[in-house]
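User: Hi! I'm working on a homework problem where we have to compare a predicted structure to a textbook description. Could you give me the structure for the chain below?
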Amino acid sequence: MQVSRKVADPVVVAPVGYAPPGLRIEAFSRYREVLHRREEDGVQVYHPRVPVGPGTLLLSLEARLAYPFLRRVVDRLHREHRFSLIHAHFIYPDGVIAARLSRRYSIPVITTEQSVWGPAFSRYPAMHRQVLTALPHIRMVTAVSDAVRESFVAACGDSVPIRILPNVVDESSFPAPKHDEPWDPDQILFVGLVRKVKGLDTLVRAMARLREIRPETRLVVIGGTFFPGQERDFDEVKRLVRELHLESHVRFAGHAGPTEVAAAMRRSALLVLPSRREAFPAVILEALASGTPVVATRCGGPEEVVTSEVGRLVPPEDPEALSTAIQEMLEVRPLLDRNVLREYVVSRYGVTAVAARFASIYGEVLEGAGESELASV
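Assistant: Happy to help. Predicted structure tokens:
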């Protein structure tokens, strides 16, 4: 939100699922804890309730089901605070809904894509059809990486202008390490949801190889699961740790807030992202902003950030290559300047750098719509 505040006067609408009274299923009941309205960094954030189904049961209907509930809220906001642009994140369901609102208010829409949609569109053709119908009413699509842009064009064509607008790192939440702040030369870090796509099983297998070479090396895992269906992936990783007798080398630290994650990054020798697929992982930016180098896989987004000066890249699902890269980085880690790592990422993906790209894109869209200034988003 810091970025949008630099270039516009934003109001945020972020719907959450409706939890019927008395329903105790955690996947739904946790939505009751979300305030209907709050303020974050001086920005008003609204959380209207919308119907959602269990898992992906109603996925192809989400845009149609949510639209009337969102329209009611956005109608009121538009009367109170007439906005010039709608910026939706993800083409579905948000972009499809935003396209309908665009026609209602006669204002332009842009969407930001942060995922690879091809597999989902193949599995849910009705969802794909809705996206294709909405695209003529969307002024511009932005993608967080070249990999995402290419996948979007492959799935939806290039009839709408597409620009690269990368994720931003909040350098205030991930501050520079102090001059004399210690770090642990034997600790490597994983941060993220424990899902198969994140490749934690590959990292655990790499740890088994590292144990033979550097028995003092330890892995700290920050994160866990969010949806019930992900628990089996987590259980599989834990089973693998036991099977490889790595209990003393792998520690599951659970979920943590940004402050705790930032501290863990500064304390670790390096961050490892062993994913099978990534769009543009913010965790890499956060680690580098914390002065911590990165070992990641060539799986889409990481190769657009990680160079040999700040880390290493290896093929996905290759424990041997991963363990070799980790060993190399642990050996050169004492030679790296933490402030140089931070400057590398902040100069490219910090708030000021990305805000300039936001302003350029907003200006281009509004100029095409006949607007002379950035009013509100």
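For your comparison, note the following. The mean pLDDT is 92. The CA atoms of residues 57 and 124 lie 11 Å apart. Good luck with the assignment!
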